[in-house]
Amino acid sequence: MGGLLYRAPRQGEREFVSHAILSLEGGTEFGDLEGGPFEFVLCSGLPGSDSQIVIATRSDLWPGAELELALTDEDLPSARVSGRVLLEGGAPWPNAPLALSSVGDELMSYVRTTTDEAARFSIGPLPAGRYALRLGADALAPPVAEFDLARGQGLELGELQSRD
């Protein structure tokens, strides 16, 4: 897991400040932080990686503050979405690029992956929430599916048709 730290400037926009990988004991330190307040975001990835799933956030932290997050199984992502991708003519699309992102969250969760050789995909574990799934490499393409996931839910989207 990785930890992210954001600064919340007065204008209300978040500015990335620092990130750190948690130790095996689950601890980390951020040095050289000035100003504040800060928001700590615990996620299962770091910026620029193929996935970043937000697990927990804590706000209004100041330099020198100590933060302890006690997570239970109920706090951890447990939903999953799966399906199969077909080309426009109906043939399977193996290794099709997919982009899944949360919808309406200030702190976006996202996953970039590909289908397997049989054109199937399974993405998870994910936190509960609303998601958009896009096919192809264009991150601005319209989603082929938008859906809500509940905690622990396994959602099968069936066959998704490429619009290319």
Output the strand order for the largest sheet: 4-8-7-10-11
Main CATH class of the largest domain: Mainly Beta
Q: Beta-strand level of the residues, as a percent range?
A: over 45%
Uncertain residue ranges = 1-11
What does the radius of gyration come to? 18 Å
Overall 3D shape: elongated
Number of helices: 0
- Which structural class do the helices and strands define? mainly beta
Could you characterize what this model shows?
This protein has about 160 residues and is mainly beta. It contains no helices and twelve strands. The protein has a five-stranded antiparallel β-sheet, with no helix packed on it. A hairpin with a 7-residue loop joins strand 1 and strand 2. About 20% of the residues are buried.
